[in-house]
């Protein structure tokens, strides 16, 4: 069985990697065509477009790994069936369980690679790509609203520890690629939601330890109840001052990032931040659980490929089987995306929404395997 395992592993891995490289070449070409209209704007040149597309490929590796595993495994197993090799393997004593175990061992390698790219390589490469493109064009990070970027923060007695003594809303007009903030406004409220301070700063630079250094600061401090116009207002101008807040550059980068391209660690941290500020966490909770579950979709896809080994070549050509595999992979991606949107609209539990597509396709794989064994 060890020799068979090695032989199957080589054939399946070679086929999966070939399919993955083909997909990457195709998607990379389309991305490059999409970047060509941007060439010439600012300092953005063709070499910048090539590097930007190249840095986007790790994200595609993560997204396409289950489909590549499905198509590559179908190709390898269908080739075994067409050459009667799988029949000989079965005659030599290889049961369905043994074949499934052999594929599972291969699948675990791809599960690890998918996790590695999704958690570490792809998020870092995606962030580098965006920063590199902005620097090449000499642009700032785009804002969510016309008034700039908004974030909510909790004011605590001892900086980022201790009891909550107020709430702060942060408005940033621009975020530079190097993390510098331009046009900062802070609106601070006490526990009864009375306005206590409005702080403006021309620039802000992160100095570490949850601390921002604000430059050219104007403070308007309110005492009493502003709403009844009986408050005393104290204004002062400072060359600089420190701001201690839970909103760090990592949090700000999350606000501009696609949750599906973020790492599970960043998603978990930002979800906690939203929960502490009593904001909706549904979108990021779903993205977190999808990030946890998605690598195991590789095993589900390879289980779906196993029944194709039991179909003789005369039951359908190799190209037909590959086409069916492509359709199954597309259906999985569409269903995964559909469940994400429906789950958010209907406030389904994030874990169930993330697991359900893979569970349905696993049941389909088991049903297909039982059917081909009976027939």
Automatic annotation (TrEMBL):
Q: Which branch of life, at top level?
A: Bacteria
What is one process in the GO biological process aspect for this record? transmembrane transport
**Carries keyword Membrane?**
yes
Q: Which cellular components does GO assign to this protein? A: ATP-binding cassette (ABC) transporter complex
Q: Transmembrane residues, as ranges?
A: 12-30, 50-77, 98-118, 292-311, 318-339, 351-372
- Keywords of this entry: Cell membrane, Membrane, Transmembrane, Transmembrane helix
- Among the Pfam families in the record, one is LptF_LptG
Could you tell me what this protein is called?
Lipopolysaccharide export system permease protein
């Amino acid at each position: 069985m060890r020799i068979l395992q090695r032989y199957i592993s080589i054939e399946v891995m070679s086929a999966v990697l070939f399919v993955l490289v083909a997909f990457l070449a195709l998607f990379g070409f389309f991305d490059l065509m999409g970047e060509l209209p941007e060439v010439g704007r600012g300092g953005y040149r063709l070499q910048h477009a090539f590097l930007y597309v190249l840095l986007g490929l790790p994200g595609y590796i993560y997204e396409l790994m289950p489909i590549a595993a499905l198509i590559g495994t179908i190709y390898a197993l269908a080739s075994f069936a067409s050459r009667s090799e799988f029949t000989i393997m079965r005659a030599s004593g290889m049961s369905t369980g043994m074949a499934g175990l052999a594929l599972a061992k291969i699948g675990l390698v791809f599960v690890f690679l998918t996790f590695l790219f999704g958690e570490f390589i792809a998020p870092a490469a995606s962030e580098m790509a965006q920063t590199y493109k902005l620097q090449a064009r000499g642009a700032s990070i785009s804002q969510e609203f016309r008034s700039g970027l908004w974030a909510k923060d909790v004011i605590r007695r001892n900086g980022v520890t201790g009891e909550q003594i107020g709430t702060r809303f942060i408005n940033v007009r621009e975020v530079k690629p190097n993390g510098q903030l331009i046009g900062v406004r802070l609106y601070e409220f006490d526990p009864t939601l009375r306005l206590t301070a409005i702080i403006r700063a021309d620039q802000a630079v992160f100095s570490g330890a949850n601390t921002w250094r604000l430059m050219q600061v104007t403070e308007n401090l309110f005492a009493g109840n502003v709403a009844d116009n009986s408050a005393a207002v104290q204004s002062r101008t400072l060359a600089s001052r420190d701001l201690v807040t839970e909103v760090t550059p990592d949090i700000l980068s999350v606000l501009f990032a696609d949750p599906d391209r973020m790492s599970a660690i960043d998603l978990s941290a930002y979800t906690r931040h939203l929960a502490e500020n009593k904001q909706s966490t549904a979108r990021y909770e779903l993205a977190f659980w999808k990030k946890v579950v998605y690598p195991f979709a590789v095993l589900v896809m390879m289980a779906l490929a196993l029944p194709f080994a039991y179909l003789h070549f005369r039951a359908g050509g190799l190209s037909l089987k590959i086409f069916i595999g492509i359709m199954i992979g597309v259906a999985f991606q569409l269903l995964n995306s559909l469940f994400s949107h429906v789950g958010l609209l209907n406030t389904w539990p994030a874990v169930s929404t993330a697991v359900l597509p893979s569970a349905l396709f696993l049941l389909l794989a088991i049903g297909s395997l039982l059917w081909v064994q009976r027939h």
